[in-house]
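Sample entry (193 residues):
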Amino acid sequence: MPQPRMPLNRTSLAVVGLVFLVGGCWLAVTHASWAPQLPTWWPTPGTHSTIVDAGRLAEVRSEGWWTPTAMAGTITLTVLPALWCLHQLPSGFHSRTALPAPDSSLRTRALEDAMTEQLVALGGVARCRTRVLTRSRRLHVRLHVWLQPDVTPAEVLPALTTLAAHTQTALTPYRVHTHVRFSTRAHRRPQLR
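Predicted structure, serialized as tokens:
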């Protein structure tokens, strides 16, 4: 399952690297002792020069559009890279899982519902909550099973193992890791007032 954002990541990294390389070369070459041997078209800053003249900067700041434009530009140049970096973090949740058959996929929510339905149908299980997380070629299945008051986990575990094996067989290219948490429902005591 190739990541669709991999070409974008590589292109973005290459562009940023190229910008830093050109900028670093420009700074290294213009302040070195070989700066006089550069071509005449190469931009060289003066010793006490600034990028923007102080008079021109004061004139631009007096305009009404300067402050909102500067704020919007700064916010955009800060927020967009931050969102891109957050988007690169693995979330651990994919809504669809690719299957080996061509053009086929399985919704993880459908898998969760099917496993929950099969577990609740077992004798001794009061209710169940299932969570499926997909990462590369692994499925992490987390089951929280609430048992009836007089049922032990050893009574339910063989059927649960069979269900996990069926899930592993159905999703063959994936490795399925199952984590089970058992809880018991206590007997309800009558309330007296």
